[in-house]
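S1.2 Input.
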Amino acid sequence: MTAERPPFRDPALPVGRRVDDLLERLTPDERIAMLHQFAPAVPRLGLAAFRTGQEALHGVAWMGPATVFPQAVGFGATWNPDLVRRVGEAVSREARAMRAKDDRVGLNVWAPTVNLLRHPLWGRGEEGYSEDPGLTSALAVAYTRGLRGDHPTYWRTAPVLKHWLAHNNETDRDTSSASVRPRVLHEYDLRAFRGAVEAGAVAGVMPAYNLVNGRPNHLSPYLREHLRGWTEQELLVCSDAGAPSNLVDSEKYFDTHEEATAAALRAGVDSFTDHGTDSTAIVARLRGALERGLIGQGDIDTAVRRQLAVRFALGEFDPGLDPHADERDFDTPAHRALAQDVAEQAVVLLKNGPAEDGEPPLLPLRPGRRVAVVGLLGDACKLDWYSGSLLHRSTPLDGLRERFGADQVVFAEGVDRVRLRTASGAWLRVPENHARDERPGDETAGPETRGAEELEGLEEPGGEGSLDPALIAGRTDLPPLTVDAEGSEFALIDWGGGVLTLRAPDGRYLSVADDLRVRASADQPGGWVVQEAFRFEARETGHDAGHLLVHIGTGGYVCVAADGVKVAADRESAEIFTVETVERGESAVARAAAEADVVVVVAGNDPHLCGRETEDRTTLALPAHQERLWRAAHAANPRTALVLVSAYPYAVPEAAAALPALLWTTHGGQAAGTALARVLAGDVSPAGRLPQTWYASDADLPDILDYDIVGSRQTYLYFDGTPLFPFGHGLSYTSFGYEDLHATVDAETIRVACTVTNTGAVASDEVAQLYGRALAPSVPRPHRELLAHRRLHLAAGASETLAFEVPRAALGFWDVAHGRWTVEPGAYEIQVGASSADLRRSVTVELDGVRPGPRAVLEDGLAAVDYDEQTGTEIVDRTKVSGDSVTPAGAGTEGQLVFRRCDFVDGATEVAVEVAGAGRVELSLDGRTVLAGIDVPPTGGRYDYTTLGAGILARGVGDLHIRLRGRVRLARVDFTG
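S1.3 Output.
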């Protein structure tokens, strides 16, 4: 090999050899530097700088204009893996095209998010696909294949799955621990990740902020025990932002950052995202850990090797051979059409009936009707934290006016129009000299519509402007608000939970910049810390009427000073405001509704408020402001449809009972309005399906930190109540029949076939859903579980025979008694239909095999975490590296574990418990016969375990109950006889 072409530059060599060659050429300091997110260039070897992490959840984000597709949960609502794969292809092509103009655009994309939508109050539900692991896995495989591309060697982008593992809460997200029992781990959470990894389309994963079983996810032993065992490919594990520091700062898991960083590296974290672009702290910690002997050079080299493998896959070292190097597809007609197609396929028709007896269903809207569009989202095209900037924009109002004609569509937003009077009698006022070149509510950064030439306008590499929305400061070039004798009228919106926004007459939102002045300066609420959110705070009892206005982002109070309106930290400086309502929103809505033939109420959420990253929702209820609006519309006109545009489910039982038509769609990206209008008009028959259960009330929900879907009966798999709308639900403008269901079984596969017929008069998609359930399970099993699905298009009267091949293993469960995946022999019902609650046909199959025996406790003992049932306990870390123990869930709480069918054979005479902490362990058979009580004196630290014993007398097969009291941690129980 010539000096001009070292082995790592030779594409004819195996990638592993090339990686090894390049690694050997890097100095120890250069290797350490590569472990930060922003790896520096190595000019002497011709290596460019490289960063991990480019957000691409539903389009290229944070790097300026790009095609904006619907939110990820909208992908879930399509139930269409082929469509989602095409989105992945488009996003990766745009990433490549954008990078050609701006090398800050990365190709290691952090997407998709595959955390399961277990709990509907999770603030980041918009990022996931479904509550079902199978559907989530199918869509993740599709999206990552699209992102990767189909070239056998070179990847278009390198996707990283988020967030490993069991992450469904923003509340205390960096300090809370999810208690994940083995059944939930294997049957639920791991399955969401495994399919995409095994498909070979994933470059790595990102651990979550939270802890699992008392151990931070950035130290997860499952990275080694499971993730890396699913593939022979080198996987790159990228930390979440700031998470390495959290191990010491917020979690207090280690005393020093050197210990924490070393532990994360040994656990499998390969790239550290911390301190933004400044790698100084991470590099110093790694060097310190190396000097202290906490890590070795081999640990560093392993991580560097994984990063280099990704860079080779992206074609960095073979520019002449990279088939994606000349990619220029950006904002193409095909991408625009695809964005609209996804938005159309994501619309879910929840209900469709007549407004009055004798009338046809309200939808689709009939030609010639005058339509009133009302509601807070009627003329909105909302973006979320992980959106790019809009190139095109279509609101529901835009779409309906385009479809039916502007003269046939009227609009009433439904905001409360108010003025704010100060204690002195003056009124809050927006200065007159506000120039505005965009219409109110516009979320673009420039003209309403921009073409593909926008790509030419991206900042030059190394430009000064930051595209990270977390770093964009509020405007200070506008004058702050003042007060005078006349004042200004503001549009007030209550988004729920007391969170308010105030909009000036020119359409800009009141916002607070770094100088703490209040200005009408923001096009929309947004940012990592939303500076446009306020709340009223009542004065103390005994004072005159009035409210203080709190700025939520800073926690300060709005006050009036000589130089304008600002935010002060102290309550004593707060201005006392009296709210004068000029017009209630429902009055304007009622007027518009009364003048129309049909009303479309568009309600929902702003993705930056009341449920987002860092903030869980507190209720399923639709905010009271929006409840008032749909009720006012319906009272004025019974022909009212409610369209919920939101990132998550709502509990709207009264609306579902009163209104003739309900629809849901997520925030639909750049073509949202056009897509919704086409569905409402009947140009497209709706066929979206709910990717998660819509519960009827908050009372149906467990605590958001309760991750035990089996024990607390969560998701459609185990929920025992009646949902408002079930998993998989969605109607269309036609009807479908299911016939000729039959199934055959062989050694590995269940082959199922059925015929689906469009029995109505309208061409439409249908989503055929195949479920299975065990008829006589030995352990709690799902009511039914999705085995397969197919979205198909059928003309009126047309039929299609569908064939499914279901692995026998899909009917199995994790057998905690024997530590393995098990398919019990016996009868299983295979069901097919239009949703998890609308099952049209079923057939029973018999599976043979050996039924699992009882627990051989004399031979194997019991790991405490392998219980069948529990009350009042949580799983905690046995050590900081691996292993689990069980402890009472709180101070003064008594915990109980139940182990079914324990076989003591001819007799057990002694028991030994491996414990730490202090307290008491009591064992009994069948909850009645006390076998032993063992007092545990303080053992020292929580990881200082000891083994204590007692004599017992137990024989035969029975259920073992173990009670835990105090601060005791139980790891194992062993028996001898």
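S1.4 Remarks. The CA atoms of residues 275 and 281 lie 7 Å apart.
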